[in-house]
Design brief:
Strand content: 15-25%
Distance between the termini: 88 Å
Mean pLDDT: 80
Number of strands: 19
Strand order of the largest sheet: 1-10-19-17-16-11-13-14
Shape: globular
Radius of gyration: 28 Å
Length: 552
């Protein structure tokens, strides 16, 4: 019996409908599974939770916009359109305020962000996208769960051999040293030798000379590398070493080296140099982040020699830049077992910047039988504790007779300010060396407010150097000194990756004392009337800038 064509068509349509329904159910099941996995990731990973919040905000704004567009009327006025998008900003501000309430590191920062995001979202929401985050979870997760691995395999390969070189003079200040070791998660080592490098000409001569003598590898990390005279001098030496068969690895901060040319990088790579940019993560949102800059400056030669300090790579460091003028900075050259600590931090930074690569390095400590105990203390926004803040607090609280500090910026945490006041009450000779004018006017304004408070309540001595004093140096009594990249501001203490070399040596402390004494002699000490008597606009500007001390 012949079938009816209409019935055949109906049966085909029914089968197609059933198949479509089955496919839809499978798609929905897969979608539900993916949604559950996404929710699990959100719960398990704070960064994923934060990113999901921003995506939810974006999707909500787009959805509202589409709905309003679909139901729009041609009689809409420009006022209606502007009011509509203004409302979208307020919705985004509310979402961002909730995020700030959940993630801000301090109550002051949380209150400041919440008020500004809700009351004036047009400016605050873009700023929050750039400055709002305070944790870089991805860096930590790249090494596995928990803190960066300074245990297990790393302990066996790197840290345990370092313990074979205990400091000769560590027993005299055991409690102070133990806290610093716990912060760094690496031990102080003895048998080191140090060379103090004052200003760019001396520092570059030492660093470039060491690079020229490298036999196996050269590890270079700088916050800023410029394609100028000094940058080209480094560039030439790195290429020459790479062509000679030496492994050369260069890492730079993507934000700090904003003006580094593509030609500079391509020429390094063409010569066999491994180059990686340190960023805060993938995606446009991470690219916009001004936070999480890697502010370290270090060079490691063959695992036996390290340079750390305050200098970047640029002509301004030689004082020949017209904008910056004369430049004052300090670096240090270290030989001995403590070099392994600098190399370990470079390995971690390179692992992140290169997308998971590891370098084959020499982890055998080099015993040069020096008389200096040293430790390289790294800090950053991936730490479970605020190691940068605690580093400064511990040094200030450890001072009994003398505390001399030099920094280009002075925008301290409130805890640091109170610790300085306590040191003054203990009778400690507290001196702070700052540039008379730095490269950031808003930092100078904010510093005015803090200096005025110190002047009013303490006898802390303030010195203003005529040159741009960019060095980051701390001297505690006559035995402990520190040279590195950390400034006396909240950004260094909470948001930046920093590295500081701590030296236990009376002879080296005497060198630092003489260097800083020379700086004090060239600087001027402003009288109370100069700091207290400010013009109204300067006073208001200082107070206003201090409101943003958590992100300056």
């Amino acid at each position: 019996m012949a079938s009816n064509p209409k019935d055949d068509i109906r049966r085909v349509e029914q089968r197609g409908t059933h198949r479509t329904r089955r496919r839809s159910r499978r798609v929905l099941a897969i979608g539900a599974t993916e949604a559950q996995a996404s929710l699990r990731r959100m719960v398990a990973q704070p960064e994923a939770r934060e990113n999901a919040l921003w995506w939810l905000t974006l999707v909500s704004i787009v959805a509202i916009t589409l709905v309003r567009t679909i139901h729009s009327h041609p009689e809409w006025s420009w006022f209606t359109i502007v009011a509509f998008f203004a409302g979208l900003f307020y919705v985004g501000g509310i979402f961002a305020a909730v995020n700030a309430l959940l993630t801000a590191q301090s109550s002051q920062a949380s209150i400041a962000w919440c008020i500004s995001l809700v009351t004036f979202p047009y400016l605050s929401v873009p700023l929050y996208l750039v400055l709002g985050r305070n944790r870089l979870q991805g860096y930590k997760q790249a090494f596995g769960a928990g803190r960066l691995p300074r245990s297990g395999e790393i302990a066996d390969i790197v840290i345990r051999p370092m313990r074979a070189f205990p400091p000769h003079n560590g027993n005299h200040h055991h409690e102070v040293i133990e806290v610093l070791e716990n912060l760094a998660r690496v031990p102080f080592t003895g048998h080191n030798r140090t060379t103090l490098l004052v200003d760019g000409e001396e520092a570059y001569a030492a660093m470039f000379g060491a690079i020229e003598q490298a036999e196996r590898y050269v590890l270079v990390f700088f916050f800023i590398i410029n394609d100028d005279g000094v940058g080209r001098a480094l560039h030439t030496r790195l290429i020459e070493r790479a062509r000679a068969g030496v492994q050369v690895v260069v890492v730079y901060d993507d934000w700090g080296s904003w003006w580094l040319t593509r030609r500079y990088i391509d020429e390094l790579k063409a010569a066999g140099v491994e180059v990686a940019a340190f960023t805060s993560g993938e995606g446009l949102y991470n690219k916009l982040q001004m936070n999480f800059r890697n502010h370290r400056k270090s060079i490691v030669i063959d695992g036996r020699l390290a340079f750390v300090g305050g200098l970047n790579v640029g002509d301004e460091q030689l004082g020949i830049d017209r904008y910056y003028g004369p430049w004052r900075d300090t670096h240090i050259c270290l030989e001995g077992p403590a070099v392994q600590g600098v190399q370990l931090v470079f390995q971690e930074d390179y692992h992140w910047a290169s997308g998971g690569k590891r370098l084959a390095l020499d982890w055998e400590p080099h015993d040069i039988n020096g008389d200096v105990a040293a430790l390289y203390l790294s800090s950053g926004p991936t730490e479970d504790i605020q190691a940068g803040l605690l580093y400064f607090l511990h040094l200030i609280n450890s001072a009994r007779h003398r505390l001399w500090l030099s920094s280009p910026y002075f925008v301290p945490d409130q805890a640091i300010l109170e610790a300085l006041k306590l040191a003054d009450l203990r009778g400690v000779d507290v001196r702070i060396l700052l540039p008379d004018r730095s490269d950031h006017w808003y930092m100078d304004l904010a510093a005015r407010a803090y200096l005025r408070e110190l002047r009013a309540e303490t006898s802390v001595k303030i010195f203003l150097h005529p040159h741009f004093a960019h060095q980051k140096v701390v001297l505690v009594d006559d035995w402990l000194s520190a040279i590195g990249s950390a400034n006396l501001d909240n950004r260094s203490m909470r948001l930046n990756f920093e590295g500081n070399m701590l030296i236990v040596s009376r002879s080296f402390a005497a060198e630092i004392s003489q260097m800083l004494s020379n700086d004090f002699a060239r600087a001027r000490e402003p009288g109370p009337e100069e700091i207290n008597r400010m013009r109204l606009q300067t006073h208001v500007g200082a107070k206003f800038c201090r409101l943003f001390d958590q992100i300056l």
